[in-house]
Amino acid sequence: MKPYHRKSILHDICELAPVMRYEDVREVRDVSGHTPEQALLIGYLTGSHCRSIIDRYGGVVGMYGTVPVNKTSASVWMLGSKGLLKIARPFLKKSRSEVEEMNRVYPHLFNVIDSRNEVHLRWIRWCGFKILGERMINNVKFYEFARIAS
Fold first, then answer.
1. Buried b / exposed e across 101-121, counting CB within 10 Å, b at 16+?
2. Are strands 49-54 and 73-80 parallel, antiparallel or unpaired?
3. Fold of the 4-148 domain
4. What residue spans define the domains of the chain?
5. How many CA atoms are closer than 13 Å to the CA of 66, on its beta-carbon side?
């Protein structure tokens, strides 16, 4: 089976949370004080677009989506396991079209990212997001980023 993206189901949270990358756990903790389970559940329940990344064995290796702020803006998020790195090429290939789809619904996508999270920094750049500035959150440097639909 080839890796693919699909609409998330509640059970995906149970599968991904225990194996989430340390960098992602740290980022969630530093920004919101949430556990991996809480962060994934908030994204799943409050999001309008929640997708899961499935590896070649049928396992959930990542989840991402949008949380609407208003009719034209949404916070975009992604959390993953080390398994995501093992399917980097197919994941990246599909990511751009998935982000473009989210951007059609919400012309303004944005969030902050931990400056230490190199994997996610590369992902947001690959998907066409721009770093707009930086700010400190709990004594950690975060970058503000956004993508405006063209």
1. ebbeebeebbbbbbeebeebb
2. unpaired
3. Aminopeptidase (3.40.630)
4. 4-148
5. 24
Residue 20 CA, distance from chain mean position:
12
Cβ distance 146 to 110 under 8 Å? yes
Q: Rounded to whole angstroms, how far apart are CA atoms 102 and 124?
A: 13
State which H helix or E strand residue 75 sits in.
Answer: strand 73-80
pLDDT attached to residue 68: 96
Q: From residue 102, how far is each of 42, 50, 108 by CA, in Å? A: 18, 10, 9
Residue 65: closest CA among 31, 21, 30, 95: 95
The confidence band for 70, taking pLDDT boundaries of 50, 70 and 90, is very high
Between CA 27 and CA 77 the distance in angstroms is 11
pLDDT at 92: 84
Q: What is the pLDDT of residues 26-48, one digit of tens each?
A: 999 988 899 999 999 999 999 88
